[in-house]
Amino acid sequence: MSDYNFLMEIRLSPPQLQALNYISRIAAGAGLNLYLVGGVVRDLTSGRGNIRNLDFAVEGNVQKIVKALEAETKPGKGSSSSSNPQALARLERFRFDARRNGASFVFAGGVQAEIIGAHKEIYSMPGKAPEIVAAGIFEDLRSRDFSANSMAVSLHPNSRGLLLDPTNGAADIEDKELRALHSRSFLEDPSRIYRLLRLSLRLDFKIEARTQAWLESAVEARAWERMRPEQQGRELRAALQEQNPARVLRLFSDRGLLGGLDASLASRRVPYDRMEKIRAAVRSIPGADTFLLYSHALSERLSPAHRKRLATKIMPDTETLRMALGMEGEARKVAKILGG
User: Fold this and answer.
1) Which residues are within 8 A (CB) of 340 and not within 5 positions of it... i.e. 6 or more apart?
2) For residue 183, which of 90, 240, 291, 337 sits 20 to 30 Å off, Cα-Cα?
């Protein structure tokens, strides 16, 4: 069995590990059971580097952690010196989502994290937003999308590094296979159609046979037409954050699925060549954030009103939205300076 304490030490970046240890300490002080979950555990297990975000689940009230983080990171609290063990984990901004009992954070150094209360989702009808019910961590993991994403690592001091794997995801990762957990998975949450195709490309994993059949049935039933706007924005944002967005969007297009992410994409040509040029240009820049560049390439031929609508849909926060909408103006200023 893998030593997850060791894996976290060597595969998380120093700022990520600092933030993880910081949140773990706060959760333990509040008497909460905290777990690292989802894609980060999948990537630790499979040996992939360049882990993007830290996802946590907590059994209990997330607001206890949020309030403790706010209290400890107020201006003037502690030292700003890099020798201070809390300096790198300083909270820069966060958003709280009461419906999901969760919060997203950005720490100093650009470390992104999300903490959500352990829960299960109950779907009254396909495509409709589910009822979210608090649950234990094992129920939470069993209600997720794919077995490879349904693992957790305990961060409690008494069990730190313990892997929880109720759906046998580690074995599927070893077999390089993506497996949905039940037959109605794609009908209940059509965004999983896009996630499955995107992950199969990124990870180079095959799709398990029954999962493939469930996928084809959901696509044939046009389940993707029932996606809610927030789901569309989330999946389009995720596609643009991939290392090769052109390849992902081309796959969606080949399957006739682009219109499910936004109506404007169903009737226009995606600038694949331009995206490939962006990818080639930034390949020599380690850690470059290309999300805004790809977003601009996707929307630059739209009318200003449609461009703003699409940007508002996919941008994760108001600051990113402001930067996206101001890119052309800033580029003209730079061009004028260089031209002079």
Assistant:
1) none
2) 240
Residue 34, phi then psi, degrees to nearest 5: -115, 140
Count of CB atoms situated within 10 Å of the CB of 283: 10
How many other C-beta atoms are found inside a 10 Å radius of the C-beta of residue 33? 18
- Please name the amino acid found at residue 212: Q
Quick one: tokens of 87? 């300096």
- Whether the model clears a pTM of 0.90, i.e. scores above it, the answer is no
Strand ranges (E), 70-190: 91-97, 102-107, 111-117, 119-122, 131-134, 152-154, 163-164, 177-178
Name the token pair of 207: 């799709």
Give CA separation, 91 vs 50, 202, 321, in Å: 21, 30, 21
- Among residues 146, 104, 142, the alpha carbon closest in space to that of 121 is found at 142
Gap between the Cα atoms of 32 and 52, Å rounded:
25
Residue 172: partners with Cβ closer than 8 Å, 6 or more residues away: 146, 147, 148, 178, 179, 208
The CA distance from 245 to 100, in Å, is 28
- For the stretch 286-326, pLDDT in tens is 656 788 889 988 888 888 888 889 889 998 777 777 877 77
- What's the DSSP call for residue 153? E
- Contact status, residue 117 vs residue 55, Cβ threshold 8 Å: no
Looking up tokens 């107020």 gives 74
Tell me the per-residue pLDDT of 237-282, one tens digit each, with 9 for 90 and over: 999 999 899 999 999 999 999 999 998 888 778 999 999 999 988 8
pLDDT tens-digit map of 175-205: 999 999 999 999 999 999 999 999 999 999 9
Residues 269 and 297: beta-carbon distance below 8 Å: no
Partner residues linked to 33 by β-bridges: 59
103 φ/ψ angles, rounded to the nearest 5 degrees: -145, 145
